[in-house]
Amino acid sequence: MSGSAVSPDILAEPAKEAEPHLILVDGSGYIFRAFHALPPMTRPDGVPVNAVFGFTNMLGQFLTKHAGTHMAVVFDASRSTFRNQIYDQYKAHRPEAPPELVPQFALIREATAAFGVASVELDQYEADDLIAAYACAFAANGGQVTIVSSDKDLMQLVRPGIQLLDPIKQKPIREAEVFEKFGVTPDKVIDVQALAGDSTDNVPGVPGIGIKTAAQLINEYGDLEGLLTAAEQIKQPKRREALIANAELARISKKLVTLDCDTPVPQPIDALLARPPEPGRLAGFLREQGFRSLLHRMGLDGDATPDTAPTSRPRFVPQLPESAPGTTTEITPAADEAAFGPYETVVSAEALAPFIAAAREAGAMGLDTETDALDALRANLVGISLAVGPGRACYIPLRHGPLPGNGDMLQEAPAAPPQMSQDEAVALLKPLLEDPSVMKVLHNAKYDLEVLGRPEHGGILVSPVDDTMLISYSMDAGRHGHGMDELSLRHLGHKPISFDEVTGTGRARIPFTQVALDKATAYAAEDADVTLRLWHALKPRLRPNQALALYEQVERRMVGVLREMELAGIKVDGAELARIGEDFSGRMVVLEKEAQDLAGRPFNVGSPKQLGEILFDEMKLPGGKRGKAGAWGTDAAVLEDLASRGHELPRKVLDWRQLAKLKSTYVEALSAQIDPRDRRVHTDFAMAITSTGRLSSSEPNLQNIPIRSEEGARIRRAFIAEPGHVLLAADYSQIELRLLAHLADVPSLREAFEKGEDIHSRTASDIFGLAPDKVDKEARRRAKTVNFGIIYGMSSFGLASRLGIPAAEARAIIDAYFSRYPGILEEMERLKSEAREKGYVMTPFGRKLWIDGIQAKEQARRGNAERAAINAPFQGGAAEIIKRAMVRMPLALREAGLSARMLLQVHDELLFEVPDSEIEATSEVVRQVMESVAELRVPLKAEIGHGPNWGVAH
């Protein structure tokens, strides 16, 4: 085919006498879907074009299947619109467009024109308003309108003559689909949205009312004004109060969500007449961008050779999955997907060069390292794997030694296999790995970045980075594990080679440095291949699963933050640890002697079997239960129950066990993990382990040092600052209770936090009916136990056990609590209901937390899941808040000219090492960042202390 003709199946044309049909494409939806689906691409002049490529491809595909007499792509002209005059917070928290997307907006409009399609936009109005104006006018004159978008805000326009078309599912959205989504007919959608609000656009709505409740109310009262007029008649007190207090917000919200059919249109209808593209103009645009594959697909390439080509092109046409609300899409690999291997072993610069060129061409690559240890700060780099496309991967061995010999001492020592030197490989790879135009995709990127960033490994600062582990975790926390092997099975249908398969197990295991290169390549290159395939499968799911902002703004940014914290470590006073260990040992000896005296004979206090025999066979204490093996159970719960009944021996054993655990887990383990090079310990923060989004730490674990015990305080005092510095501890005050007051919207608790009152005293006053000056220590203690217990779904039995009171009294306290704070009970029931319906609950910031066992038939398991559903948003919300503070903190400190280093994060606390001269300035910056990272109905408060060691600072 010559280059001057367009293939007849590329662009459908309407029949000359066709019924008037207007197609309106929501341009923003296409743009952002294309941008986030594709890896970075640039033209030779450096202009990014990945969104342009995706938009052009999707528009071209759409035009092959759909034809109308009139057509336009509608764009947003600016961020600020007339709605910001109505409500200044409207869309105020939306981030600016990524800088690499901004220069592509103009090119996307050029692409639209090249296809012969009209572009429409108008300053101070949103694209949705223009769509409404054109759609209403066209339908009023008897034409048919199709709006290409799945945006819920446009569903209010559905009526006879106007339908939506989901661009991904290619499924029409008519009245039935709108009713399924909102529970009302399209003409009442704006009333439902006015009540429910929209956190994405900062539409306030009425607190505590969601879509389902809003639909019920509108169906019952007819419309928003009818409901607000009858608000005094609403039986539910919280709902009634919310409607009355927020009536004006609801009315403002209705104005914000209502699309204006009277919006002035910048072009007349006739200007939107559909016409085929001019082949020369379209081909010229595609050549200018270097989109050779699109030129060929549209039959526009002919014999011509494009003058320019992008420096990187995606290898695939994006097929973007879109999940229904509350679900995630499982990816099924295509039937023609490339095989996993064989892969190439690269041992020369000549063999490596094609992979480097292919990575630059593709614009994205899989990356993995092989090392000889799990500690990234001490491990030696053994080899590097690259993947540049499905099935196209290589392994670059660097430190493989000879294979294990046969034990014959007379034989000549075997030589190491041929491989590149580390210096040669690093010299070739470093420019690629630091190239900002090539995305590096890793799994658990923090480990590899620490290994490659060490000076002895070339000091490679890998960037930009995507992490498939964190992409999965951002969408599916608590749903399943996020290890590469599990994700490969789940999303690719492929079981990777295991480490044991190449190194052996047990006494037969050999170091990876001694694995034959063919086996090492099959294992290592496959890891990079799987990682890249997972990226292609999972990255496009982030936006439809409403996890893109969480991943890009929080989780991915945490990689660099935690890397710097782990590299910094924290100094430990080894001599003080030794003194603590000696003291603990001496006290353990005393406790053991006292326990044996109480038992009436010597026994091994550390033996559960011997302890069980003494407690239940000899002392005949009540409540004993045997396990499957026949031994008596003596875990902490059993001993705590016995101790609460006044038995001394179980208490002595509990005290002995606590000291033994602290001695082995912290005193001895910490001493062993002090790095002799800097006298500091460098913990490893795990980013994707917990179901709530919290970090955890290991080697050493610093998350579980007892906070309130004297022993825990002593261990904290062994963590010290460098000379001329102090440790500064910043701890969020009662953050989970603040989230409770926020989510349940409890007026009296909100008032207490706003006034800075003691929240537990205020609760005691409320639920026990005491005057504020009559609240004593016991009443406050009980209120505090209830406050924290409620967050964990504590029952009356649990409260009775905690307070040492009868169950009936505990039940009365809980009843009084819920009677005084009915919003809390409503929120708890809502969370359980949401978990049962969707399988997950959400944090206040939008992270889905999947609840395992919520549908279980076993009552005990289901009850545990319900308690987890109640607690998850509070723990998860607290985790989100402190992570937000952590990603903002380094820049805030640098901009203030401060040299403080963030060292540790432990639950709701951040620990810094600060020069003596910068204590006050650092405290102010830290407080400002921590208290401003989220807007709740109650203020956030950070409590800050400092001192020569962690114990004093905390």
Automatic annotation (TrEMBL):
Residues 712-918 form the DNA-directed DNA polymerase family A palm domain. Residues 302-329 are annotated as: Disordered. PROSITE patterns: DNA_POLYMERASE_A. Its EC number is 2.7.7.7. InterPro entries: 3'-5'_exonuclease_dom (IPR002562), 5-3_exonucl_a-hlix_arch_N (IPR020046), 5-3_exonuclease (IPR002421), 5-3_exonuclease_C_sf (IPR036279), DNA-dir_DNA_pol_A_CS (IPR019760), DNA-dir_DNA_pol_A_palm_dom (IPR001098), DNA/RNA_pol_sf (IPR043502), DNA_polI_H3TH (IPR020045). One of its GO terms (molecular function) is DNA-directed DNA polymerase activity. SMART domains: 35EXOc, 53EXOc, HhH2, POLAc. Residues 343-543 form the 3'-5' exonuclease domain. Residues 20-275 form the 5'-3' exonuclease domain. It comes from the Bacteria. It catalyses: DNA(n) + a 2'-deoxyribonucleoside 5'-triphosphate = DNA(n+1) + diphosphate. Coiled coil: none annotated. Keywords: DNA damage, DNA repair, DNA replication, DNA-binding, DNA-directed DNA polymerase, Exonuclease, Hydrolase, Nuclease, Nucleotidyltransferase, Transferase. It holds the Pfam family DNA_pol_A. In addition to polymerase activity, this DNA polymerase exhibits 3'-5' and 5'-3' exonuclease activity. PANTHER family: DNA POLYMERASE I (PTHR10133), DNA POLYMERASE NU (PTHR10133:SF27). Single-chain monomer with multiple functions. Belongs to the DNA polymerase type-A family. This is DNA polymerase I. It comes from Teichococcus globiformis. The lineage of its organism: Bacteria, Pseudomonadati, Pseudomonadota, Alphaproteobacteria, Acetobacterales. The gene is polA.
